[in-house]
Amino acid sequence: MYVAVKGGAKAIEAAHRLMAKRRRGNPELPGISLDQIREQLGLAVDRVMAEGSLYSPELAALAVKQARGDLVEAIFLLRAARATFPRFGYCLPVDTGTMRVERRISATWKDLPGGQLLGPTFDYTHRLLDYSLMEEKEPAGRDGPAEIKGPGMKSPEMKRPKALKALLGEGLMEAEEDDGREPGDITRQPVDFPVDRAGRLQNLARSDEGFTLALAYSTQRGFGSVHPFVAELRQGTLSVEFTPEELGFPVTLGEIDLTECETVNQFKGGGGQPPTFTRGYGLAFGHNERKALAMAIVDRALRAEELGEEIKGPAQNQEFVFSHSDNVEAAGFVSHIKLPHYVDFQAELSMLRQMRKAANDDQR
Fold this sequence. Notes:
Elements: H1 9-24, H2 34-40, H3 42-52, H4 57-66, H5 71-82, E1 100-105, E2 116-117, E3 147-148, H6 165-170, H7 197-206, H8 209-220, E4 229-242, E5 251-267, E6 276-285, H9 289-301, H10 318-324, H11 327-335, H12 342-363
Antiparallel strand pairs: 1-4, 2-3, 4-5, 5-6
Helix pairs in contact: 2-4, 3-4, 3-5, 4-5, 7-9, 8-9
C-alpha cells in the first residue's frame, strides 16, 4: 500500500537545487559543454542512444550531462524525451553490407574478403592508466586506423561484402529469408509471449548492456550451450532513407553510426534439418561492440526452442530475459522501495510482534 506524504514539497525543491549544484561541481572550473561530452565521451553517448532508442548524439550528451554521468538515468531521460516527439513513420530497412566501415574484424577468417580493419579498439591496449591525460597531453602513437590487408582491399572507404556470404554459398549456413510479415514495434505495443525474433532483437537492442553481457557470459560458461565464433563485427556509417507519402519515393534523412555483429554457432541438426551453422545477430547505435556481441550471443541462446535444443539456462528463457533486461523498468522497480512504505512496514512490524508473543506464550 502506498500512502501520500504531505509537507515534503519544500524538501523536494531543496533536493533539486542541491542536485543542480552537485551536477555543476566547483563553479571556479569551466562547465563541460555538450560538444565535449559528445566528442570525448562518445562511447557513453553511444550507449545512451542505443538503450534510449533515439539516435541523437546532442540529446544523448545533454542527458549524460543532466544525469551527472549516471548512464541509466540518462537513458531514462532520453526515453522520456523520445516519447514526446511526433512520429512520421518508419525508415526503410538499412543494408549493413553497404556500410562505410571504420572497423571490421573476423575471428573466423584470417584472409577475410575485403580485408580486416582494426579501427579504434581497446582490444590490444595494456589497460594501463595513461597519466599524460592528466595534463591534457595526447598519447604518443600513429594517427589513423590500423589495417590488416586482405584480398580485395582497396581503401578505408571501400564497402566490404558480408563475411557469411561464402558459407551461405556452400549451404553450410542457415539462410534467413524475409517472411513478408510486418515486424511489430515494442515501443508502441506491449510484449506478448512468445515473442517473435523481430521483437526479440528489438528488446535486446534496448536492453541493459551489463545484464545482456552477464547473460551472454552465463551461456558461454555452461548455463546454455552457446559458445560462438565471431564471423564478423563491423562498425561504420550508413545512410537512412524514408519514403514520404506525398512524394512516393525515398529520400535520404541523414547518416547514422552502427555496430553490427554476426556470430557462427554449431548446430547438430534434427527435425529434418541437416547439420549446419546457425547465427546470432546484434545491432546497436554508435560504436557499441560489446553490446552488439553480447546481443548476438543471447539472440542465439533464445533460439533454443526453435532449434529443438534443451533449455538449461536463464539466457534461453524468453520471459526471464525480456522481463528483466530493460534497465529503465528495472531501475524504477528497484528504486521504488526508497519511497515511503510506512504502512506496509508498520503492518509487518505489528505482525512480527504478534508472532513472537504467540511463540513465547506457547513456550510457557
